[in-house]
Design brief:
disordered N terminus; 135 residues; BH3618-like; 1 helix; 9 strands
């Protein structure tokens, strides 16, 4: 879980050099806590505030999740240790809370020091594109 008190990301601007899939022109985002939640955040485009995504740290819901970042992505983000990276997954909300799913196949990876970020597509990991948050 990403504790609020130790994160400067809540007020910082993240930079996605390549944008996000489907949103190639959106390069600057902020990460804001969603209400009183300690898990759910909103990843919002600075370029267009109507573009936003609900994100969560995957380990809170999927404790055995072990994404492996390819060398090219790690080098591009200048991630040398796991402590450099913050991993989040995009949540798709359903009609009911128990219908919410997480995209484990393409996590958001943020270098916590430089605030460079990307949505990394994990190939060969067998991760689900729509994993139910409720199990």
């Amino acid at each position: 879980m990403l504790p609020r008190s130790s994160s400067d990301l809540d007020t910082s601007e993240l930079h996605f050099a390549a944008g996000l899939p489907g949103f190639p022109d959106h390069h600057r985002f902020t990460l804001n806590w969603w209400g009183d939640s300690d898990l759910f955040s909103i990843l919002r485009s600075v370029d267009d505030s109507s573009v936003e995504f609900v994100v969560v740290p995957p380990f809170a819901f999927f404790p055995t999740y072990e994404p492996e970042l390819d060398d090219t992505t790690a080098e591009r983000l200048n991630i040398t240790t796991s402590e450099d990276a913050l991993v989040l997954v995009i949540v798709t909300l359903g009609d009911r809370p128990e219908d919410a799913t997480a995209n484990l196949m393409a996590p958001i990876v943020i270098n916590q020091h430089s605030l460079e970020a990307t949505q990394a597509v994990l190939v060969g990991g067998g991760y689900d594109l729509r994993a139910r948050l409720g199990g």
